[in-house]
Specification:
With 232 residues, the chain is of the alpha+beta class. It has a 7-stranded mixed β-sheet with strand order 1-2-3-7-6-5-4. A hairpin with a 5-residue loop joins strand 9 and strand 10. Bound molecules: biotin (BTN).
Length: 232
């Protein structure tokens, strides 16, 4: 990752870079809005719901950006991440509500928002994953012939984040619904506290939650993650 180039291209931003850090989320706490924290490697990368984020050295983008509070941030950041990947690599990603960026049916990037700090993890040049992740995770490198430039993705990512987080909530929900094959008409299973439900997605409600219609005709509003394509 060419940090000096990133600092030249974004002179008004504070870009903090660590070779190794526990989590860029923790390192970003207390920094001024606009600040960016990047790491080559995380020793305690955080995922949603207390999970960990596989943070192999030099292979991925591990990035936290300090934002101002804004509506539908998780959805806006997924859109921004998919947009940056498309612009920098030409690869078209899908979005799995609420925070997963998918490539060929597997997760290639994840979004974590904590107190208006945007955490973005992108699997870029990994050529394999630990056995427990192998069926769920992929990288950009696994879908192209040559190594992918981390710098090029970040050059696209920072302006994309700025553009998408400024949009109003209705626009974000409309763009997400258009970009995500999971938002409407998709057979899914969803892990709920009282068990797994199966049904068909029917869109996002005005707050950005996912609506799922079960086969008995009843509607359920999904407020947390746990969405999987049915049969996967
Ligand atoms: C998820 O899909 O569960 C969210 C994953 C978010 C991972 C990123 S990597 C950069 C930032 N620092 C962290 O510790 N987590 C986020």
């Amino acid at each position: 990752m060419d940090i000096e180039r990133l600092r030249r291209e974004f002179p008004s931003r504070r870009i903090h870079h660590y070779a190794t850090v526990d989590s860029t989320m923790r390192a970003a706490v207390g920094l001024e809005p606009g600040s960016v924290v990047l790491a080559d490697r995380q020793t305690a990368g955080q995922g949603r719901h207390g999970r960990w984020w596989h943070s192999e050295a030099g292979s991925g983008i591990y990035c936290s950006i300090v934002l101002k509070p804004a509506p539908a941030l998780t959805l806006a950041l997924g859109l921004a991440t998919a947009d940056a990947i498309a612009r920098s690599t030409g690869m078209a990603c899908d979005l799995r509500w609420p925070n997963d960026v998918m490539l060929a049916g597997k997760k290639v990037a994840g979004i974590l928002v904590q107190n208006a700090i945007a955490g973005i993890g992108i699997n870029v040049n990994q050529t394999s994953f630990p056995p427990e992740l192998a069926s769920e995770a992929t990288s950009l490198r696994l879908h192209t012939d040559a190594p992918v430039s981390l710098t090029a993705i970040i050059l696209a990512l920072l302006p994309a984040v700025d553009r998408f987080v400024e949009l109003d909530k209705d626009t974000i929900l409309r763009l997400f619904t258009r970009a995500s094959s999971y938002a409407a008409g998709r057979r899914v299973t969803v892990a709920q506290p009282d068990g797994i439900i199966e049904g068909t997605t029917t869109g996002l409600d005005p707050a950005g939650f996912l609506m799922v219609r079960k086969d008995d005709g009843t509607d359920t509003l999904i407020v947390a993650g746990g969405v999987r394509a049915a049969g996967s």
